[in-house]
Amino acid sequence: MIFSGILISALIGGMDAGSSVGIAPVSIGSFLSASLSPAYARPPRRMHSITVPIPPPAKGVTLPRVYGPAEDPSRPLVVIDPGHGGHDPGAVNRDKGLREKDVTLALALAIRDALVAQGRVRVALTREGDTFLMLQERADMARKMGADLFLSIHADAADNPDAQGATVYTLSETASDREAARLAARENSANVVNGVDLGDQGNAVSSILIDLAQREAMEASSGFAGLLYREASPFVRFRGRYHRFASLIVLKAPDMPSALFEAGYITSATDAVVLGAKEGRGRIAEGVAKAIDVYFARRSASN
Questions:
Q1: One domain for residues 253 and 204
Q2: Are residues 45 and 81 part of one domain?
Q3: 112, 127, 195, 275: which sits with the fewest CB atoms below 10 Å from its CB?
């Protein structure tokens, strides 16, 4: 279990300087309790405790509706994942009144509609409302449905207001750069509620060896990233370094091409106008849908 640094700082603020801190879980049920006390203090000092609520374990994810030629299982299935949702708003642009969770859902719906209009693939969304899903649940949902492509939709954020443009991320155990590492840390933290890692993915996920099946999926994911840039560029403004790699939990399916698309910077005045407008999202969706169509056309031709 992981407690947030802010929470721990508040708890140990009253401790004497020079004392170290030990964390010992006391009980796990509908609540998790932990006690913090100086580990080597002489004489013994007082103990600090906290109790945080933990939601009950999921009883199983309900598989979403499939749109398009749903009765034809030979058609490729694309699962679009609108990032964040529920209690997790994602990045926020207060000046424009934009929340990432709203932008990603609206954009995912637009991509779905564009793909359905093409009529060549089946489409499902991991969420169609303002609901929260664990990161692993999102990928598991797609895998249970036998998805041929998983695309997680997000909007980036940066302290630099001049940062703008779209980026495609695919899986790698090693981040391509510091920015990619920061993004992975931010997006993976969606599993943390009240300072507790509800996904319990940290060590377990990072210790899994990437087998040959996952390497093939990673190669296919990288190919899609390049295709997305090429086909969507007339509709979407990409960053100079449009393809980055990171250890993103939501992309860790071992047998399914997966990518995370940052459609732009919600903190950019320029990108926020596009992301916040139906017309702007429509153009992005058109570019993404075109790339997906070409991706499966190529795959069909090579089989």
A1: yes
A2: no
A3: 195
Count structural domains, the chain.
2
Residue 66 lies in a domain: no
Q: Give counts: helices (H), strands (E), the chain.
A: 8, 13
Residues 33 and 88 in one domain: no
Residue 90 belongs to some domain of the structure? yes
Per-residue pLDDT of the chain (303 residues; tens, 9 = 90+): 333 333 333 344 444 444 444 444 333 333 444 444 444 444 555 554 544 443 443 456 789 999 998 678 889 999 999 999 999 999 999 999 999 999 999 999 999 999 999 999 999 999 999 999 998 889 889 989 999 999 999 999 999 999 999 999 998 755 445 655 565 565 555 553 333 333 444 443 333 444 566 778 889 999 999 999 999 999 999 999 999 988 788 777 778 899 999 999 999 999 999 999 999 999 999 999 999 999 999 988 877
Separation between Cα atoms, residue 51 and residue 25, nearest integer Å = 10
- Whether residue 209 is contained in a domain is answered as yes
- Centre a 10 Å sphere on the Cβ of residue 227 and count the other Cβ atoms it contains: 17
C-alpha to C-alpha distance for 125 and 133, rounded to whole angstroms: 12
Look up the domain containing 15 and give its range: 5-53
- Six-digit token string for 165: 């443009």
